[in-house]
């Protein structure tokens, strides 16, 4: 993993989560600006996936399947939370999307651990 990209995605996920938790406290509904925030996070996650595909060595084994399964799950979590948050018309709809940012940050931390400990690049 490229360290600066990993840190940028972590920062974006946590910043998005903080922004959405503030909107949860203000009883906001999921709107276009929230979709834009999730889209920025998704673009960063897709960039992380593309870079990871490019720099992971080609041999099988060594935790690569686990690494990529975590990475794909990380990409799917904000999309699923955004869908769920948009159909939940209570104040907690945006809270669901906010929690997805924390989940993405935790998954990225685990991905980074897998990278450092199992994939020797």
Q: Care to describe what's here?
A:
The chain is mainly alpha-helical. The protein has one domain. It contains 4 helices and no strands. α1 packs antiparallel against α2, α1 runs antiparallel to α4 and α3 runs antiparallel to α4. The longest helix has 25 residues. The model has no long low-confidence stretch (mean pLDDT 90).
Tell me the layout of helices and strands.
Blueprint: H1 3-25, H2 32-55, H3 64-87, H4 93-117
For this entry, give a set of tags:
121 residues; 4 helices; mainly alpha
What are the low-pLDDT stretches, counting only 5+ consecutive residues below 50?
A: none
Global shape = elongated
Q: Mind describing the biggest β-sheet?
A: none
Global Rg: 15 Å
Number of self-contained structural domains: 1
The percentage helix is over 70%
- Structural class, by secondary structure, is mainly alpha
Secondary-structure element order, N to C: HHHH
Number of helices: 4
Number of strands: 0
Average pLDDT over all residues:
90
Beta-strand portion reads under 5%
- How far apart are the termini? 8 Å
In a few lines, what is going on in this structure?
This protein has four helices and no strands. The chain has helices spanning 3-25, 32-55, 64-87, 93-117.
